[in-house]
Design goal:
Strand content: 5-15%
Distance between the termini: 31 Å
Number of strands: 2
Shape: globular
Number of helices: 8
Radius of gyration: 16 Å
Largest sheet: 2 strands, antiparallel
Structural class: mainly alpha
Length: 117
């Protein structure tokens, strides 16, 4: 899915070894009209709506994508709470982003099914 996302909405970066390379799309690119439907066609299913809505919220912030970058400098719980304000972001996704993108080593993503045990 990530490859299709970048290929469809990212900037073309170049061609090497018979392969085209694309950037990760900007929030503005993912917030555009018609993106949700295209994401569904690319196999994003129910996530398509959340990707577009979250991208729109980020792109509408005065600092835009820099808001996302600023979360790295905030304490874990503040960053986690900020991420949970985005549509479709629950506890596990917020913890995954905190751990893998924001260097918050105290984050422990837990699938809801584990809580049922």
């Amino acid at each position: 899915m990530l490859h299709r996302l970048c290929e469809t909405f990212g900037r073309h970066l170049g061609h090497s070894g018979g392969q085209d390379y694309h950037s990760f799309p900007s929030p503005e690119a993912l917030a555009a009209d018609g993106v949700e439907q295209k994401l569904r066609e690319l196999g994003f299913g129910y996530r398509a709506k959340y990707v577009q809505q979250s991208a729109r919220l980020v792109s509408e912030k005065p600092s835009g994508v820099l808001w996302l970058h600023s979360l790295r400098g905030r304490p874990y719980r503040e960053a986690w709470a900020a991420l949970k304000e985005l549509p479709g972001v629950g506890d596990k996704v917020a913890d995954c982003v905190c751990l893998m993108a924001l260097d918050k080593m105290e984050a422990v993503p837990v699938d809801t099914h584990v809580l049922e045990l």
